[in-house]
Each structure stands twice: as structure tokens, then as C-alpha cells.
Design a protein that fits this description.
Structural class: alpha/beta
Number of domains: 1
Order of helices and strands: EHEHEHEHHEHEHEEEEEEHHHH
Distance between the termini: 28 Å
Number of strands: 12
CATH topology: TIM Barrel
Strand content: 15-25%
Helix content: 25-40%
Strand order of the largest sheet: 7-8-9-6-5-4-3-2-1-10-11-12
Largest sheet: 12 strands, mixed
Radius of gyration: 20 Å
CATH architecture: Alpha-Beta Barrel
Oligomer: single chain
CATH superfamily: Aldolase class I
Number of helices: 11
């Protein structure tokens, strides 16, 4: 691993220290959730534009020298990327990384869970918006709930250090899913997080009235299961407000980017599948890491990256961090929706 010249922490102009990187490994997906992707005629990036595993690992190595300690693999759907356990193994071997996680829709998880765990994946988040096949198809516009449930069971069987279920909360559609999902998670000893619906759908249909906010979710849960007791965050920058059930059986999280943003403590950076660095999910600007990652190849076929290349990568990331806005601004007149949808950014 080449050493960079300046290993100072990645701190933005508001003093937020960045220690987390989300890595999108593909923009492709095997379902078409309306809050993320268009249903038909999806324009995916050509495969030659997508970063290789070696390029991803090199980028992660550089930012790890500036204090990034937590990595999460996303998509699209990361499990459609061929031979993903090989990337997991490469990232798990980086000396400065303390936490390696992945977010998946679960469709392919039953077949890959054991190999991912063996490769070094520690934590996994699985999307589960509903326990009803009819509602699943309304949201995902494809079949597959039974495969998601099989993936959850496989993840438990192979023994990931932590398994979370993520449920997108949508007004007028998922209110009746809240109690069954909470019961499902409690019965299986799984942590459940509800996430407010955000304006990142590809079909541009999101309206503020579609948001099923965290306060309403909490009221519904407490009516059925009793009081929720707030618990301290595992780390100051986590996006969720966590609660324990008063009877001691389980934990619930509420992620409220619309009604209760957590921007003031955000420590995340994002790397898109084609190598663009973003300092916010809602950023309207990107920094081109791929150009630097592939510069040595353009200079001379077969040449290796140099320390200067890695310093240039580090400087690019620092510029990205310095330009980070105080907040995403959803609900304000200043808010500008990004041109990319969720699947093109990385969840």
C-alpha cells in the first residue's frame, strides 16, 4: 500500500470529521423499487466505466490513511456484481478498516451469504419493506419476497456479527406493514430500522406528503408494543435514533432524513460505481476519482500507480470534503434535487 504524503483527518469547514465511506459497486439491480429506479428502459453505465475491484480497493486504501475506518458496499444491488466476495476479501485485508458492511435487497443473499461471511463481511443490512407479496410487488414491481425471507434466514445461519432490516416508510402504503415488521424482527432477534422516503426516485414522483415520518411510526409501534426507550448512539454520527422496547426484547431505529435530519453529525463520503466522489447523498456536484485511478494506465499500458497518483487522489477527496454543504436542505426553498436517482448514487 503506497503511503500518501498528507494523512491528516478529513475534516470539512464545519468541523465534521469523515470516517465512513459508502461504495457503490454497480448501478444494476434485479428489482425496480419505485423509490429508487424507473420501472422500464433503465440506462445503466457501460461496464467499462464501472470501477474494477482493484480500483475500488486502491481508493479505499487512500482514504483509510486519512481516517476512514468504516466501509459499506451498496448498489444498485451489490450482489449482482460478479464475484463480489473477492472484493470483500480485498477490502477486509486493508489494515486501517475496522468495519465492513453491505446493504442488499436480499434476493440473491441465500446463495451468497456463506461466501460473503467467509470473505470477511461483518455486518449486513437487508431491505424488507413489507411481509406481503402483493405490497412487495407494488413497491419493487417484481416478484421475490420469498427469496428475501430466505436470504434473511441464510444470513442468520452463517452468523454475521450484525443483521439489520431496513424498511422504507411510505405514507398511504406501508402504515399497515409497521406492526408485522416489528413483530417479525422481534421474534427473530433482528434489529429493524424504518427509513423515511426521500426525494431520490428516478421517476420524480416524490412529494412531501408521501413521507411517513418517524414520529408517526413511533406512535404506531408504541400503541402495539408499549413504550420505546431511547438508547445512546453507538457512535455520534449514526443516522438512526435508536430505541429499545421496554420489555427488553429488541431494538428499533428511526432514520428521519426528512423530518429530523442528522446533517450536523454526518461523517459519510460516497463513491459511485463509475468512480465519482460525493460528499452528500443529495450533492449536486461530484469529484472524478476514476480519472486519477486510470491515469497511470493512460500514461503507459501496464504501469503501476505512483505515490504522486495517490496524493492526487487524496487531494481530490480533501477538496470534496471541504466543499460539503451544512445540510441537504430538504423542505427548504434552497433545496435542489440531485439529477441522479438512488440507484445511480448508491444507497
Amino acid at each position: 500500500m503506497a503511503r500518501i504524503t498528507n494523512t491528516a483527518p478529513l475534516v470539512d469547514q464545519l468541523g465534521r470529521r469523515h470516517t465512513s465511506l459508502r461504495i457503490s459497486v454497480t448501478d444494476r439491480c434485479n428489482i425496480r423499487c419505485f423509490y429508487c429506479m424507473p420501472n422500464e428502459n433503465v440506462q445503466f453505465r457501460p461496464r467499462h466505466e464501472i470501477l474494477t475491484f482493484e480500483e475500488i480497493t486502491r481508493f479505499a486504501s487512500v482514504v483509510s490513511q486519512m481516517g476512514v475506518r468504516r466501509l459499506r458496499l451498496t448498489g444498485g444491488e451489490p450482489l449482482v456484481r460478479h464475484d463480489l466476495p473477492r472484493l470483500v476479501r480485498m477490502l477486509a485485508e486493508l489494515p486501517n478498516i475496522d468495519d465492513l458492511a453491505l446493504t442488499t435487497n436480499g434476493i440473491l443473499l441465500a446463495d451468497q451469504a456463506a461466501e460473503l461471511r467467509s470473505a470477511g463481511l461483518e455486518r449486513i443490512n437487508i431491505s424488507l419493506d413489507t411481509l406481503q407479496e402483493e405490497t412487495f410487488q407494488k413497491i419493487s414491481r417484481r416478484e421475490g419476497l420469498d427469496r428475501v425471507l430466505a436470504g434473511i434466514a441464510a444470513a442468520q445461519e452463517v452468523g454475521f456479527r450484525q443483521i439489520r432490516l431496513n424498511a422504507i416508510a411510505i405514507q398511504g402504503l406501508t402504515e399497515t406493514e409497521i406492526v408485522p415488521l416489528v413483530r417479525f424482527a422481534r421474534e427473530r432477534g433482528l434489529e429493524l430500522r424504518f427509513i423515511e422516503y426521500m426525494p431520490l426516485d428516478a421517476e420524480l414522483k416524490w412529494q412531501s406528503g408521501d413521507v411517513l415520518d418517524g414520529a408517526k411510526i413511533r406512535r404506531i409501534v408504541e400503541m402495539e408494543f408499549g413504550p420505546l426507550v431511547p438508547v445512546p448512539p453507538l457512535h455520534p454520527s449514526q443516522p438512526a435514533n435508536d430505541f429499545e422496547f421496554a420489555d427488553g426484547s429488541g431494538r428499533l431505529g428511526l432514520i428521519q432524513p426528512v423530518s429530523n435530519p442528522f446533517c450536523e453529525s454526518c461523517d459519510r463520503l460516497r463513491l459511485t460505481a463509475e468512480g465519482q466522489v460525493r460528499n452528500c447523498l443529495f450533492s449536486t456536484a461530484e469529484w472524478d476519482a476514476r480519472a486519477i485511478l486510470r491515469r497511470a494506465v493512460r500514461r503507459r499500458a501496464g504501469s503501476s500507480p505512483t505515490p504522486a497518483d495517490d496524493d492526487d487522489l487524496a487531494n481530490l477527496v480533501r477538496a470534496c470534503v471541504r466543499a460539503k454543504a451544512p445540510a441537504h436542505g430538504i423542505g427548504t426553498i434552497e433545496f435542489t434535487r440531485p439529477e441522479r436517482a438512488m440507484y445511480q448514487i448508491g444507497g
